[in-house]
Amino acid sequence: MKVPKRRLLAVLGVGLAAALIGTGVANADPVVPGGGNAYDRPLQGEGSDTIEGVMNALSEVVVDPNDSTKKLIASWDAKSTQGFTSRSAANTPAGSNCTYTGNPTPDNSVYGHGARANGSGNGQKALRDAFTAGDSTFGCLDFSRSSSAPGASNLGTVGVYGVPLATDGLTFVRTSSSLVAKQLTKAQLQGAYHCTFSNFKNNTNPASATNFKALIPQAGSGTRKDWLNLVGITEADLTAGLYPCVTDQFDLAQRRPASDPNSNPIQEHDSRAVNNFAIGPVSIAQWIAQKGGALTDVQGAAVMGTIKSTAATDPAVSYPIVLNDTYGDVGVPAENFAGTRTVYNVLPRSTVNAGAGQNPLAVLAFVDTDSSPSVNTSLVCQRSDVIKKFGFAPIASCGSTTLSVN
Question: CA 182 from chain center: how many Å?
Fold first, then answer.
């Protein structure tokens, strides 16, 4: 459902002459003033690694319809040791500090106040702080990127809309010479993450069960949250040590706390840790974008696996390449794995709803205010060409404010 029309800036159309992203990798912080007015852009955001690339590209082509020289969005990378400034001194609220530090390496999965936010959950926490009166980062951010629906536990008392951007999918990866089969049923995939997996090509090799690792990405990532939900385990299960084959460490050792100096978690969509005895999740959109050169290729030796049905009447296989927005739907309800998901930009409700706190530019960029299904007023949603180039499937609900949290 679309939000009703309000008095906003007139939508005159983007009318961009620039190409989408050129031939380079569109995965970097915006250029600071002197080339790209980064901290003078009115809409500042950070968070999810999954949609970092597509949002970075959109931030370079979405402009003020009344002045095509002014870019509206600054989208800051999830990982970097470098800091960034989200507001010029003139635009920084009194008492606030809008200079964020870089995040620590190798483990930057824990939220650091006033530091670059890595992952959906951490991005939401940074947005929460930026909309909490009295916080030192108050007024410094306008949105966060999220590869899963925003969670109340990240937001304190700040009410937000999860504004859909596109459809993504999740699947597992393995190596081409893996001891794990290239096709797994829903039950087999879930069994792998419950450490009861036995579908090895060579069951006579005792190393199969001994060395097998089921990988998950860094804490705080939307991909980790969604994948754990899909395979039927919880963070509490992991904390209790119920599934020792599950790890988020790049060296495939047992999980370590972020306080451990040897902790080096797997960044979401980085498949280089996968070996012949391991599987892990990946965003299909990220995989396509990496394959096509739109994002840095961190696939290593990994290849995509597929989900199949065990039903005798419908032995279908769901192939994810060129994102299938019904991926996981193999025609048999009991076998469906629902491997697709919606990715979002998260906006505080106060900036969208009519009232003194409304931010017309945020509405113009992210929110569809027209009730007609054939018209989408969101400048971001209008750029389906950019969305598709980064491997995502455009979604009819792009820009809607149906999902409200808090």
Answer: 25
Mean pLDDT along residues 290-310: 93
Comparing CA positions, the residue from 401, 394, 302 lying closest to residue 346 is 401
Our CA dihedral for 259, 264, 265, 266, rounded to 10 degrees, sits at 170
Question: Is the separation of the CB atoms in 95 and 138 below 8 Å?
Answer: yes
pLDDT at residue 5 tops 50: no
Q: Which CATH superfamily is domain 168-340 in?
A: Periplasmic binding protein-like II (3.40.190.10)
Q: Is the Cβ–Cβ distance between 401 and 163 less than 8 Å?
A: yes
Closest CA to 182 of 320, 322, 303: 303
Contact 378, 399 (CB under 8 A): yes
pLDDT digits (tens, 9 = 90+) for 232-246: 999 999 999 999 999
Nearest to 316 by CA among 304, 303, 334: 334
Would you tell me how many other CB atoms lie within 10 Å of the CB of residue 27?
A: 19
Report how far Cα 323 is from the mean position of its chain's Cα atoms: 16
Provide, for the chain, the percentages of residues in helix, strand and coil under a 3-state DSSP scheme, each rounded to the nearest 5. 20, 20, 60
List, in order, residues 6 or more apart from 70 with CB less than 8 Å away: 37, 41, 63, 64
CB atoms within 10 A of CB 240: 9
d(C-alpha 167, C-alpha 180), whole Å: 28
CB atoms within 10 A of CB 50: 32
pTM: 0.88
3 secondary structure, DSSP code:
P
**How distant is the alpha carbon of residue 258 from its chain centre?**
21
pLDDT of residue 313: 80
Domain 38-167+344-405: give its CATH superfamily: Periplasmic binding protein-like II (3.40.190.10)
